[in-house]
Amino acid sequence: MLRRRFIRSLTSFTSSFFLIPQNVFAKISQQVARSGGKFTFSGRIHLKSESLRVEESLPLAVKWSHDFMSLEDFAQAFHFGLYTNEQKRKSVLYLEKDRITFTADNTFVKFNDQMLQIPLECHWYDDSVWVPVAYFVDILNKYTPFQFRYNADRKEFGLEETDVNITGVRIAAKENGTLIDVFATKRFKEKEIILDIRNRWLHIDVYGAKIDPASLSAVQPSGIISEVKAFQMAETASLSFKLKKEVLSRELVLDKTGNDFHVNLRTKEIIAENKEHEKIKNELEEQKKRWIIDTIVIDAGHGGKDPGAIGYSKVKEKDLVLPMALALGKIIQQKMPGIKVVYTRKRDVFIPLWKRTKIANDVGANLFISIHCNSNVSRRPNGYETYFVSADKNTKATDVVLKENSAIEFEESQDRKKYEGVNFILAAMLQSDNIRRSQFLASEVQNSLKLKLKKIGMTSRGVKQGPFWVLVGATMPNILVECGYISNKHEEKLLRKQTTQNKISEGIFNGIQKYKKEVEKAI
Ligand SMILES: [Zn+2]
Question: By residue range, what is the domain housing residue 185?
Fold first, then answer.
């Protein structure tokens, strides 16, 4: 998936608060007085982005004369991670490296560890935080690398598609020199990029490039580079880097699969450089092989003495997820005969959580899919959601996570010891390589489920993050699907039907298939 990357300097902010001018507050107070704070649905909002391949129309609500959009809808449409705490009525939105927390009935928004304020409160409706679209866009544009626009008259919301095609530069000091990464949304040919060193300045001139000089000049210098300047000429963009010392050699490397290119400035000779190069090349090949999908582990949750959740009419989670897991495996074997399918259980037996990912690691699986059903003390909640593991220390365990993690209570004491002293954050970070892929897989699976389950009236709760024990030990991309609430009378009835179970297995399969196609395309 292509995402624009912008490098922006945040150092120019003098205050950690997003200050609202008095006149804006006065205007809003007038509007509040005039229209009141009733939350009413009013047509649809159209989401569109060509680069992210998004085109969807979603419900729009109005409160205090301002348009509101559901964060669940937004995150799902744009494939961003979202974690919602229903008790606290707050949602954390994950945009690549940033995390933004929105709380219902609150004007404060937390951007990573910084507090911001918007002029209007967020709203809570249908288990989701609804945000005032215009102020939401303000925050995204000011603080994140993504630039969105909202046309309130036409109710059009989308990613800003500018003609800027060099979106960012990153400079990194390496052991033997300095590496400059240039992020582009267009693929430049080698002959269009000219490197030149004159008077201790390195100039990279790119023909056909369009830049935003202000944002590129604000790039943080590092390594042997002390200053960065960017100029836009008619047909060419020029990036200039002031060098602290002499450069022994320079090398231009174009990404094989992406649009980015890199300039390697070497300041130190390396002994046996060729040998090293060969070693790195081999390692890279090995790395790439890891992502080719040839073995999938399917994990039916719970089993044996651990029944999992108990449904409205006493159906057991373990008995619903097993046929779905087996059906999923069958579809994979039919439609992708080259792929090896391994089940953590094929029968009603108990398997400790740690052992489930160990099975996957031992067979060298490239995907781990854990299938569960949800439940709640309230009979009301319904819908399905897909989780990927979180490396974020601020992600709190939700009810769902606590419920699934509580399976360890059925384990023998020597098994339980395996979780003691495990630093969850560290373990999750070790799989940070997998997290991006897991997030992508989760989006594809959730969207494919949506296509299958919309027709029978089941609702999508989106893609979420959570610290699940069953996922944390996995060394491959992994997800956990909560296929619906068996505590809900209607949904339990649906989930007991074989036709629904098959729809779910097919939905998960379609997601895996899309993921496989995308990932392997890049190898
Ligand atoms: Zn479960």
Answer: 166-270
What is the tens place of the pLDDT at every residue in 281-303? 677 676 666 668 999 999 999 99
Last residue of a domain, one of 159, 189, 224: 159
CA of 417 to the centre of ligand 1 (A): 21
Residues 153, 173, single domain; the answer is no
CA of 310 to the centre of ligand 1 (A): 10
- Position 280 in a domain: no
Which CATH number characterizes residue 211's domain? 2.60.40.3500
State residue 144 phi and psi, 5-degree precision. Answer: -115, 165
Give the closest residue to 364 by CA, choosing from 519, 283, 481, 474.
474
Instruction: Please report how many Cα atoms fall inside a 13 Å half-sphere around the Cα of residue 477, on the Cβ side.
Output: 24
Query: 488 versus 274: which is more confidently predicted?
Result: 488
Same-domain check for residues 52 and 190? no
Q: How far is the CA of 35 from the centre of ligand 1 (A)?
A: 45
The CA 125 to ligand 1 mean position distance, Å, reads 26
Q: CB-based contacts of 178: which residues, under 8 Å, 6+ apart?
A: 171, 172, 222, 223, 224, 225, 264, 265, 267
Are 60 and 137 members of one domain?
yes
d(CA 299, ligand 1 centre) in Å? 11
Q: Is residue 262 part of a domain?
A: yes
Instruction: Out of 31-35, 318-322, 396-400, give the one with best mean pLDDT.
Output: 318-322
Quick one: 142 and 187 in the same domain?
Answer: no
Residues 255 and 171 occupy one common structural domain? yes
Indicate the pLDDT class of residue 313, thresholds 50, 70 and 90. very high
Q: Which of 270, 305, 325 is the last residue of a domain?
A: 270
User: Residue 307 is which amino acid?
Assistant: P
Could you tell me the maximum CA-CA distance found in the chain, to the nearest angstrom?
A: 80
Give residue-wise pLDDT tens across range 263-280.
999 886 554 456 666 776
Give tens-digit pLDDT for 199-239.
899 999 999 898 888 778 888 888 899 999 998 887 889 99
Other CB atoms within a 10 A radius of the CB of residue 290 amount to: 14
For the chain, the average pLDDT equals: 83
Residues 142, 173 within the same domain:
no
Is the pTM of the predicted complex or chain greater than 0.85? Answer: no
* Centre of ligand 1 from the C-alpha of residue 400, in Å: 8
Distance 404 CA to ligand 1 centre (A): 5
Hey, is 430 helix, strand or coil?
helix
Q: Are residues 245 and 305 part of one domain?
A: no
- What's the CA-to-centroid distance between 369 and ligand 1, angstroms? 13
